[in-house]
Amino acid sequence: MKYKFLILFCLLQMSFPSWAQIDIWEGTDSHKRVLLTPVLPEGEPRAAIIVCPGGSYYWHDTLSEGSMVAEWLASNGIAAYVLEYRVAGVGDFLSGYRVLFRGNRHPDMISDLQRAICIIREGFSGPVGVMGFSAGGHLVLSSGEFSNTSFVAGADHSGGALRPDFIAAIYPVVTLSDEAIVHKRSRRGLLGENRVGDAVMRDSLSLEKHVPPSMPPVFLLNCVDDPVVDYRNSVVMHEALEEANIPNLYLQFKEGGHGFGANPQKMTPETSTWQQSFLDWLLSIK
After folding, report:
1. How confident is the model at residue 142 (pLDDT cuts 50, 70, 90)?
2. Is 48 helix (H, G, I), strand (E, B) or coil?
3. 212 contacts 205 by C-beta, under 8 angstroms
4. How many domains does the chain contain in total?
5. Domain membership of residue 188 as a residue range
6. What is the pLDDT of residue 20?
7. pLDDT digits (tens, 9 = 90+) for 232-285
8. Cα torsion for 217, 221, 227, 232, to the nearest 10°?
9. CA-to-CA distance for 129 and 173, rounded, in angstroms?
10. Domain holding 103: CATH number?
11. CA 271 – CA 255 distance, rounded (Å)
12. Sheet hosting strand 218-223, strand order edge to edge
């Protein structure tokens, strides 16, 4: 209940000052500290979007795929909330210490995102969507596919409370099982060293294999020349969405690489069009 007043206060601000971050697990039994940073528009927001930066499930790109995304959304009348969901961390990337200690791993990430969705819904009755980049794209797609399963203790998922109203996945990681195109670093970051070889878990989190009828509309884009996440991740996701008759828009660019987010300095003339395409698509699905 306390979050309702906090979110309402945020949404009523006429501009975004340096508003305090929200610790999404404060007041719960969790000892984790996960921050949600609001960046708000002038006037009444037409939607709210939780932004999940990429970083191979090891770190976050908090600039190009975080704050710059949020500022762009807010400038277009959308309340943005940047989620610093739990990741494995640079320490594990360098040492692989999760062989000995649990650390952060699935389902911590989806648990954080579901918690954030619940918090935003407490104070905002409009559409609540999710936007993720790279590994963050895998996370937001997961939130749509697994919205009928609560990864948050005590969370109510009746009436679609955990289901985002729409999803934007930008150059996302999708498969964890197709060795020809899998992004191995993200797979290890998500699963942990002790479970990265678990074929059943790989399959269960390969999103092209589990699109449900309840999947929200999806905006999907990537570049054929992506040197980090094989572009065929988005191709197989698009094909799965089409087969399940889920409304979606897939933009495939020839050049643009990976990691440009909302940073104009990292964009090509082609990728610089994606933001307006997303805004147009968002209007079209309402």
Report:
1. very high
2. strand
3. no
4. 1
5. 2-284
6. 73
7. 999 999 999 999 999 999 999 999 999 999 999 999 999 999 999 999 999 999
8. 60
9. 19
10. 3.40.50.1820
11. 8
12. 22-23, 35-39, 78-83, 47-52, 128-133, 167-170, 218-223, 248-253
